[in-house]
Design a protein that fits this description.
It is built from 19 helices and no strands. It is an all-alpha fold. Helix 1 runs parallel beside helix 5 and helix 13 runs parallel beside helix 15. It starts with a helix and ends in a 22-residue tail after the last helix.
Length: about 500
């Protein structure tokens, strides 16, 4: 039965609080990373604080999605929140990097549930037409966390120490837990079915190998044979996973999702977001510092413009989609806008006023926000109700994998391009924004031109990724989101030949 108005509002507040808690943790910890690793005497192992969290959250997404389908999203949601809080408490007491990495694995497991279960719960308890609006309200947690996370992390670390970066989750999380217990309704689960253990293991191994290969390729954290071996394991594991899923009675990632054209196009669009937005946002501040010769603080205005555009766009388009029930126009316009913004970034010469790249990247954010949450609602509406958790997890999983691998590739391209074109006489070890601010005007101009030349094809490549999204959006079957919780409408359930 549909929720009453007051119960739905309380549910939105509860899910938004939990989503914000999970999203904020990642950005807050990133700000305090150097302080943590330095205090624990392990600067050279700093990456494990991030990698352990990222791996756990990525690998557990499809597992938690399937568990939600089998045992109910409410149980998985509350369990994930408890795991996250216990792991946060443990992280604060860590005495070395190994202990902290173990705690971050626990946080990653809990965070996967905090990210995935709110979307799954919305997909179960709301009508298809309500979902874009509700998901857009919950989805604002992510861009807000990006905006305020670095400030919160810096303040907490400076005022109370890095351990409070984790401990501050406890009071907020307990409030969120009480709200969740009251607001999240009991959701019917499927009849008892055998869990796809082999599929979960193969998928976990494949994703882990892929993430490690991408990370090592970017950072130089392993020799080339090790990177190749990890890539081979990822490829072989993926093939074995597909073979197992074709035979499994209750596959962890039902391959029938990919036979549904609406779901397939939503998955492709989600991958485009991971590849096209999250990878470029990671490197835009460095590009602005070097090409536009700004400080680190000023360079942060460009990603802020991107995130702010995404925040406004997701709220507006979510409301419009729920009002009309139509959805295909938003990804078509959104992907076209984002591609245009990236092509403009590729064409910008160095030395322009900073508001120009800010405006271009704001367009990228507006375009991405126009369909970021809508495609989740559309995929849920096109899938069978008993697959709500798994289809939501699949859409999120491909976005995260796309982001991880694209970030690694883009980082490698930028690093190789800058080193290859570095002017004679400049030590690569001294190629920092601070050093460039004290260099001669001629050297600054050369480095600025170099970064513009290296980043231009990167922006073009990411713009092309969004053009792929335009094609996927145009191939999405037209239709209207239903006003009831019944089975998907024929237009949404259309399958490929």
């Amino acid at each position: 039965m549909p929720l009453s108005r007051w119960r739905l509002r309380l549910l939105i507040v509860s899910l938004l609080t939990v989503s914000f808690l999970g999203a904020l943790d990642h950005t807050v910890v990133a700000t305090s990373l150097a302080t943590m690793s330095g205090d624990l005497g392990a600067i050279d192992q700093m990456s494990w604080i991030v990698v352990s969290y990222t791996l756990a959250s990525t690998v557990l997404l499809p597992v938690l999605g399937k568990l939600a389908d089998l045992f109910g999203a409410r149980l998985i949601f509350l369990t994930s929140l408890v795991i996250f809080l216990v792991a946060s408490l443990y992280c604060g007491f860590a005495q070395d990097v190994a202990q902290l990495a173990v705690g971050r694995v626990g946080q990653g497991i809990g965070s996967a549930g905090l990210h995935l279960m709110p979307q799954t719960i919305v997909g179960v308890v709301t009508t298809p037409r309500e979902r874009p609006r509700v998901l857009s309200l919950i989805g604002v947690a992510f861009p807000i966390a990006i905006l305020v996370g670095p400030l919160v992390g810096g303040f907490v670390t400076d005022a109370w120490g890095w351990r409070w970066v984790f401990w501050i989750n406890i009071p907020v999380g307990l409030v969120a837990l009480v709200l969740a217990v009251i607001a999240v309704p009991h959701i019917d689960r499927q009849p008892a079915r055998r869990f796809d253990v082999l599929g979960a293991v193969l998928l976990g191994v494949s994703i882990t190998a892929l993430v490690l290969a991408a990370g090592w390729a970017t950072s130089g954290g392993a020799d080339l044979p090790v990177i190749i071996a990890a890539a081979v394991v990822a490829a072989v594991g993926s093939l074995a996973f597909v073979m197992v899923e074709l035979r499994a009675s209750a596959p962890i990632v039902p391959l029938r999702h990919f036979a549904n054209r609406t779901v397939l196009m939503s998955i492709i669009l989600s991958t485009v977001i991971g590849v096209g937005l999250f990878s470029v946002v990671s490197y835009v501040p460095t590009y602005i510092q070097m090409a536009y010769r700004t400080s680190a603080t000023v360079s942060g205005l460009v990603p802020i413009a991107t995130v702010f555009g995404m925040l406004v766009s997701t709220l507006v388009t979510g409301w419009l989609a729920s009002r009309s029930g139509r959805y295909r126009l938003f990804p078509v316009i959104g992907t076209a806008l984002a591609a245009t913004g990236l092509f403009v970034m590729a064409a910008l010469p160095p030395g322009l006023p900073l508001w120009v790249p800010m405006a271009a990247m704001a367009v990228v954010g507006i375009g991405t926000g126009a369909f970021m949450n809508i495609i989740v609602a559309v995929a849920q509406s096109a899938a069978a109700r008993e697959d709500t958790g798994s289809v939501t997890a699949t859409v999120s999983l491909v976005r995260q994998i796309g982001s991880t691998t694209a970030t690694a590739v883009v980082g490698g391209v930028i690093g190789a391009g800058v080193l290859a074109g570095l002017p004679t006489g400049i030590d690569p070890a001294l190629l920092t924004p601070q050093a460039m601010q004290t260099a001669s005007a001629a050297v600054q101009a050369e480095v600025a031109a170099l970064y513009s030349a290296v980043l231009a094809p990167v922006f073009v490549g990411l713009g092309i990724a969004y053009l792929v999204g335009v094609v996927a959006a145009l191939l999405m079957p037209p239709g209207r989101l239903a006003d009831t919780l019944e089975e998907p409408a024929p237009a949404l359930a259309e399958r490929t030949p």
